[in-house]
Amino acid sequence: MKKALILLGCPESPSQTPLALYTTYALKKAGYEVTIASTPSASKLLEVSDPEQFYVNNRTDIESCLDNLEENIYDLLVGFVHKDAAVSYFVTFYHLLNTKSLAIVFEKDADLLEKFVNDVQENTDANIISARAYHNPTPLRVKIDQAIKELEE
Amino acid sequence: MSFCLELHLQQTQDYEILLSKAGFKDAKKMIETHSSNIVYVKPGAKILGSRIIGLPPIPIGIDESGNTITLPYTKPCHGTAVVKLPVEKEEIDKVKAIAIK
To answer: Which residue from A151, B70, B78, B80 could staple onto B84, CB 3.0 to 4.6 Å apart?
Structure first.
C-alpha cells in the first residue's frame, strides 16, 4: 500500500483541521495509508474531531517524525502551509523525504499568500494548490479533490 | 554525552536570543550580518542533536575564538528565532563537516 504523510502547521487557522480530515479521507479512498504529523495541539483537535479514528488512524508528533525522516519511507508528502514557519517545515520535510509532494497553501492576506507560494516554488518542485482561505475550507477542498485525482492519473 | 539543543534551551539559560518570532528570511539575514564566519547547511541537517528547519541554504554562524554558534530555531506556532549559544570545539567541527558551502 502507498504511504502518505500529511504535515500540519500551527492549528490556529480554522480551516486546517477539517481540511486535514478531508484530505485523509480522500487519500485513503485513493489507496494511501495516511499518517499525520503535527504539533500536540493540532493532534488534539484531530482526536476530538474523529473520536473513533474513523479517518485518522496514524498520528505522530512533528518533532519526533522529523527526527526519523529519511528518503523513500513515504510515497507522498502533503503539507498544510499557512504561516512562515509552515513553509520552512514543508521545505525541510520535502528535502529529507525527496518524494512526490503537494503543498496546500492558504492565507487570508493576499500578499502573504503570494509570498508563501513563491517560497515553496523557489525551494521545491512540489505541486502547489493555493487559495485565500481562513474560515471557509470549500475553495481548497475543490482543489484538493482535483490534485488527488491528478495523483491517480 | 552528545549535546542536545532542545534540552539545552529548556534546562539552561546559557544562550542568547538575537531575534524571536520572525520569518525565516529575517532570521537568515540576522545570522549573516551578526556572524563573521558563516557556513551553510541543507534543510534537515542535524546540528547539536536537532534537525535544522528552513529554506536552503541555511546559514550557521561560527565564532571559533568564542566557541559559539548562531543558528535558526523554528517552531510551528512561534516562527523562527535566532539563537547564539556556547558549544565545545568538537560541535563546531561537526557543523563544518556537514557544511555545503
So the answer is: B70
Q: Which residue of B has its CA nearest to A70?
A: B44
Are B51 and A66 within 8 A, CB to CB?
yes
Cross-strand pairs, A101: A77
Query: What's the complex ipTM?
Result: 0.93
Chain B CB contacts of A89 below 8 Å: 53, 74, 76
- For residue B12, what pLDDT is reported? 82
Contact between chains at B44 and A95 (C-beta distance less than 8 A): yes
Number of domains in chain B: 1
The rounded mean pLDDT for chain A is: 95
Query: What is the radius of gyration, based on Cα positions, of chain B?
Result: 12
pLDDT digits (tens, 9 = 90+) for B41-95: 999 999 998 999 999 999 999 999 999 999 999 999 999 999 999 999 999 999 9
Which pLDDT does position A152 carry in this prediction?
A: 74
Q: Which fold has domain A2-152?
A: Rossmann fold (3.40.50)
CB distance A106 to A130 below 8 Å: yes
Separation of alpha carbons B68 and A125, rounded Å: 35
Domain locations along chain A: 2-152
Residues of A in contact with B74 (CB under 8 A): 85, 88-89
How far A1 CA sits from the closest chain B CA (Å)? 27
Instruction: Tell whether the model's pLDDT for residue B1 goes beyond 60.
Output: no
Say yes or no for a CB contact (<8 Å) between A123 and B42.
Answer: no
